[in-house]
Design goal:
Shape: globular
Number of strands: 5
Helix content: 10-25%
Largest sheet: 3 strands, antiparallel
Low-confidence stretches: none
Strand order of the largest sheet: 3-1-5
Number of helices: 2
Oligomer: single chain
């Protein structure tokens, strides 16, 4: 669903991704967006430089485009 987070969509499809708090604070779900655009509900867990480098939190991230690719780890 478009309202689902990247993490929720991945888990629904059986993709095993790291996560913990699911509120955007612990950064266990941090990944780097290699393509596409992602909107974050919460940015508190990322530094300004991490955001500038393209890092996202999958637990609070929503894809804005169909070409989102996230590198985890």
């Amino acid at each position: 669903k478009p309202s689902d987070t990247i993490l929720a969509s991945a888990l629904d499809q059986g993709v095993d991704l790291p996560y913990s708090c699911q509120s955007g604070l612990c950064t266990a779900c941090r990944g780097k967006a290699l393509s596409g655009q992602v909107k974050l509900d919460e940015e508190e867990g990322l530094s300004q430089s991490e955001r500038a480098e393209g890092y996202v939190l999958t637990c609070v991230g929503h894809p804005l485009t169909d070409d989102v690719v996230i590198e985890i780890g």
